[in-house]
Design a protein that fits this description.
Layout lengths: L1 H23 L2 E5 L5 E4 L7 E4 L1 H5 L3 H8 L7 H40 L7 H33 L1
Antiparallel strand pairs: 1-2, 1-3
Helix pairs in contact: 4-5
Length: about 160
């Protein structure tokens, strides 16, 4: 009876400890092996804490102004400069995505030509088949990005 009671108390203390650690973790920023920025609540050695749990629950005066409709005002000239800069950035991204799509399609074509000479039972056929699937997924991603960038540019 005494052992069961101790086990229950120990389990409660451990779960309380885990919940406190999880609540106190906050938001962390890290860059993964592919160079992508990731925001997470999981703590790793390479992550940087950018927001604590406490600061997330407070409301800033800026948020109150936004809710009340008191948006910051900018001049027409400043807004035009921002729009021009945004258009330039989006155009550059569109050019990059278009180039990456063309590269992916060329690689798919070359891989298909290499695969023509192999029978389906050949190991190179299988590995090339999976390479083609990955390349087609990348091409589809580039096509989606191009469509989204064109939509953004048409809204400016």
């Amino acid at each position: 009876m005494k052992q069961t009671y101790c086990k229950i108390i120990l389990a409660g203390v451990i779960s309380l400890g885990f919940s406190i650690v999880c609540m106190a973790s906050g938001i962390h920023k890290l860059v993964d092996e592919h160079g992508r920025t990731v925001f997470t609540n999981n703590v790793t050695k390479s992550s940087i804490k950018i927001q604590s749990e406490k600061s997330r629950s407070t409301i800033s005066s800026h948020q109150i102004n936004v809710v009340a409709g008191n948006y910051p005002r900018v001049s027409k000239l400043q807004q035009d400069q921002r729009d021009t800069k945004r258009r330039r950035i989006l155009s550059q991204e569109l050019a990059n995505e278009t180039r990456l799509l063309e590269d992916a399609l060329k690689t798919i074509d070359l891989t298909l030509r290499k695969t023509e000479n192999y029978l389906p039972s050949h190991p190179y056929f299988t590995s090339n088949y999976f390479d083609i699937l990955q390349l087609r997924n990348q091409a589809a991603s580039h096509e989606r990005n191009i469509k989204a960038l064109n939509a953004e540019l048409s809204n400016l």
